[in-house]
Every structure is written in structure tokens, then in C-alpha cells.
């Protein structure tokens, strides 16, 4: 049977591409809403909903997904801890794929970041994450940068909260602390998404960079996740589960 996919945020930069990718994948566009749309109606009429909106709307859509028993693909970034807790609650009842970035290359980068961090002692290698996005982006650091930070922390057998984040350095900051991960966010023009993870030691640097040239890469990944999610039991998944990379 043809999969019915609903889109929350259909008039946005991502939403327009998602509608095209739903059709390209042979699925049915069950409906699409913007800020003023009927969200409950969208969930009622869809097998799975893809959300690329904002943090507050994402939280509301997670609650609706659970209420309507529908799978959810969540791409929105900038969620607070409380908003992520609402997503986790929904995922006890329905499959939720919550991914900071739906590009395959970034998800490989997450896996590499964890392995590199495990191999490079924090006393010798400072981890720094630099990201750049278009001037319309409203949250910083990007969800992907935070995802990279979480991967580095995991590689060091800690959480990101335990390791600590150092962002917005300005003025007399004093020497860099050992351990925390540095974050820097650049905004300008129409940059689709660039992320660099740098491990800096006294005698060497290692840097990994991902550049997205076309945000269609995210839309293709999200539609792929939608087809995958409807076959899963309730749970919180991310793109590594969809792609089968660990
Ligand atoms: N995980 C990933 O791979 C990616 C994540 N993102 C994230 O996706 C989100 C959207 O990005 P982008 O498309 O560039 O942003 P846009 O601002 O272009 O689009 C967001 C859309 O969401 C709609 N919206 C706002 N509130 C609601 C609501 N309550 N219900 C339904 N729709 C709503 C807006 O509609 P209206 O026009 O009515 O205001 C708008 O069209 C961001 O958080 C971004 O960081 C982006 C790219 C990739
Ligand atoms: O807002 C964007 O554009 C993007 N947001 C995501 C993020 O916050 O990481 C993913 C991608 O970098 C594009």
C-alpha cells in the first residue's frame, strides 16, 4: 500500500523539497501544514509525519504523534532538554526518528567523531567544532554541532553535559580549559550547512569537514527514514539506525 506522508512546515525551505521527495519516492503526500495549519488533522490523515519546523512546534507534534499512534520523523533543531524529554515520552508509544542531520555523510562523521575521540586523549587533544549556516538560521550551535559534541563526549565515555561546552569566547577568556568542547557558529549568506570537527594537540591537528551543497540531501534522508520508521516498533531512533551504521 502507498505510504501516506504528512509534512509539518511544508512552506519552509525544507518543506518544499520534502514534498518533491515524497513524490519522487512514490509515496502519497497526505497533507502539509504551516504555522496556522490543522496539526491534528494532518496526523489523523497520515501514516507518518515529517516535521521540519521549529523547537516548540516539534514538541507539540511529538505529543500529537503519540496521541494519534503515528510515526514521526523529526528534523527540527534547537530543542531544549524539556522539549527533548517530550520527544522521548512520545517515542515510548510510537516510532520516532529524531536526527540532528539526515545527510548520510554527517552520520558517518558522527561515527568517526566517536572513534577519534576514544583514541585521542582529552589531556592532549582539544576538540573544537565550527559550523556555518545561512543567515536565516535561528538556533546556535546547530543541532549537528551538538550531535558532534555528543559523539565526542561518548567517545570519551561521558555525556556532553559532563564534558562541558565552551562557546561564545570573547574578551579576556584566560587559557583554554582541558576537557570542554569548543563551539563556534558562523552565520551568513545562503550556506546550506558546513561542520568541521578539529582535534588540536601541541604538535598536530586533525580536522574532519562535512559540507552540504544542497539541502535536498536532508529531504531524501528524511523520506527514507519515513519508509523505515513505519516498519519499526515504538522507540527513539536516529539516522544511524535507518542507515545501519554504528
Ligand atoms: N535535521 C536535519 O537534517 C535538518 C534540520 N533542519 C531544521 O529544520 C527546521 C526548519 O528548517 P527550514 O526549513 O530551513 O526553516 P523555515 O523557516 O524555512 O521553515 C520552517 C517552516 O515551519 C513552519 N512552522 C512554524 N511553526 C509551525 C507550526 N506550529 N506548525 C507547522 N508548521 C510550522 C513555518 O510555516 P509558516 O510559513 O506558516 O511560518 C515555516 O514554513 C529548523 O529547525 C532547522 O534547523 C533543517 C535542515 C536539515
Ligand atoms: O537550519 C539548517 O539549515 C540546518 N539545520 C540542521 C542543524 O541545526 O544542524 C541541519 C543542517 O545543518 C541544516
From TrEMBL:
Dihydrodipicolinate reductase N-terminal domain sequence ranges: 4-102
Gene Ontology biological process terms in this record: diaminopimelate biosynthetic process; lysine biosynthetic process via diaminopimelate
Higher taxonomy: Bacteria, Pseudomonadati, Pseudomonadota, Alphaproteobacteria, Acetobacterales
Sequence similarity: Belongs to the DapB family.
UniProt binding sites for (S)-2,3,4,5-tetrahydrodipicolinate: 134, 143-144
Name of this chain's protein: 4-hydroxy-tetrahydrodipicolinate reductase
Keyword Cytoplasm attributed: yes
Stretches assigned to the Dihydrodipicolinate reductase C-terminal domain: 105-243
Pfam families on file: DapB_C, DapB_N
Pathway the protein acts in: Amino-acid biosynthesis; L-lysine biosynthesis via DAP pathway; (S)-tetrahydrodipicolinate from L-aspartate: step 4/4
Enzyme Commission code: 1.17.1.8
HAMAP family per UniProt: DapB
InterPro entries associated with the record: DapB_C (IPR022663), DapB_N (IPR000846), DapB_N_CS (IPR022664), DHDPR_bac (IPR023940), NAD(P)-bd_dom_sf (IPR036291)
Superkingdom of origin organism: Bacteria
Subcellular location(s) per record: Cytoplasm
Broad class of the protein's primary localization: cytoplasm
GO cellular component: cytoplasm
Active site location: 133, 137
List of residues binding NAD(+): 9-14, 75-77, 99-102
Purpose of the protein: Catalyzes the conversion of 4-hydroxy-tetrahydrodipicolinate (HTPA) to tetrahydrodipicolinate.
GO function terms (MF aspect): 4-hydroxy-tetrahydrodipicolinate reductase; NAD binding; NADP binding; oxidoreductase activity, acting on CH or CH2 groups, NAD or NADP as acceptor
Keyword Methyltransferase set for record: no
Keywords of the record: Amino-acid biosynthesis, Cytoplasm, Diaminopimelate biosynthesis, Lysine biosynthesis, NAD, NADP, Oxidoreductase
Record field: catalytic activity: (S)-2,3,4,5-tetrahydrodipicolinate + NAD(+) + H2O = (2S,4S)-4-hydroxy-2,3,4,5-tetrahydrodipicolinate + NADH + H(+); (S)-2,3,4,5-tetrahydrodipicolinate + NADP(+) + H2O = (2S,4S)-4-hydroxy-2,3,4,5-tetrahydrodipicolinate + NADPH + H(+)
Assembly and interaction partners: Homotetramer.
Amino acid at each position: 500500500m502507498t505510504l501516506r506522508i504528512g509534512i509539518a512546515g511544508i512552506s519552509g525551505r525544507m518543506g518544499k523539497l520534502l514534498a518533491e521527495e515524497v513524490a519522487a519516492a512514490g509515496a502519497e503526500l497526505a497533507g502539509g501544514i504551516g504555522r496556522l495549519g490543522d496539526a491534528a488533522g494532518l496526523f489523523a490523515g497520515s501514516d507518518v509525519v515529517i516535521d521540519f519546523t521549529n523547537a516548540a512546534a516539534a514538541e507539540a507534534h511529538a505529543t500529537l504523534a503519540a496521541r494519534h499512534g503515528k510515526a514521526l520523523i523529526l528534523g527540527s533543531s534547537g530543542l531544549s532538554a524539556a522539549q527533548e524529554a517530550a520527544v522521548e515520552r512520545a517515542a515510548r508509544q510510537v516510532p520516532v526518528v529524531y536526527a540532528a542531520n539526515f545527510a548520510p555523510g554527517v552520520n558517518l562523521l558522527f561515527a568517526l567523531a566517536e572513534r577519534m575521540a576514544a583514541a585521542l586523549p582529552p589531556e592532549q587533544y582539544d576538540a573544537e567544532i565550527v559550523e556555518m549556516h545561512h543567515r536565516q538560521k535561528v538556533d546556535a550551535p546547530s543541532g549537528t554541532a551538538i550531535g558532534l559534541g555528543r559523539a565526542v563526549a561518548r567517545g570519551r565515555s561521558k555525556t556532553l553535559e559532563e564534558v562541558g561546552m565552551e562557546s561564545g569566547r570573547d574578551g579576556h577568556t584566560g587559557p583554554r580549559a582541558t576537557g570542554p568542547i569548543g563551539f563556534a557558529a558562523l552565520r551568513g549568506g545562503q550556506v546550506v550547512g558546513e561542520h568541521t570537527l578539529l582535534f588540536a594537540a601541541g604538535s598536530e591537528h586533525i580536522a574532519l569537514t562535512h559540507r552540504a551543497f544542497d539541502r535536498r540531501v536532508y529531504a531524501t534522508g528524511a523520506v527514507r527514514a519515513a519508509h523505515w520508521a513505519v516498519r519499526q516498533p515504538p522507540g527513539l531512533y536516529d539516522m544511524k539506525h535507518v542507515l545501519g551504521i554504528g
